[in-house]
Design goal:
Radius of gyration: 16 Å
CATH class: Alpha Beta
Strand order of the largest sheet: 1-4-5-6
Number of strands: 6
CATH superfamily: NADP-dependent oxidoreductase domain
Structural class: alpha/beta
Helix content: 25-40%
Length: 130
Amino acid sequence: MPKSGKEVSALGLGCMRLPMKGKNVDEEKAIELIRYAVDAGITYLDTAWPYHNGKSEEILGKALKYGYRERVTIATKLPQWQVRNRADMEMYLNAQLKKLQTDVIDYYLVHSISGASVWDGLLKRALLIS
C-alpha cells in the first residue's frame, strides 16, 4: 500500500464463507483456516457485519489472538443499510472493534453501495447533508 508503506499480500482471505457444521460456522475449523492462511503468507483479511449472521467478525477476532493480529491487515464494512443517523455509524464501528478484539480496523469500507442514490441516502441520514 503506497500511502501507508504496509506490505499486503497479493491474495487475501475473505471471511464470508467459513467452514460450516450444520447451519453454524465450525468455529474451530474456521480459526484453524484463518491461522493457516496467515502462516502461509496471507496478510489481508476481509469480513463484514452481516457475514455468517454476524459471527464472522467475532470468529476473526478470536483467530487473531496470540500475535496473529499484528501480522495482518483487516478490512470490514459499515452496514450502511442499517444506518439511520450519525450515532448509528459510531455504534456499528464500536461494536465491530469489540467483535474483532482490536482497537484498529485498517480498512473500513461502506458495504453494498449499489449506486448514487444509496450513497446520497447514507450521506443524508448519517451526515445530515441535504
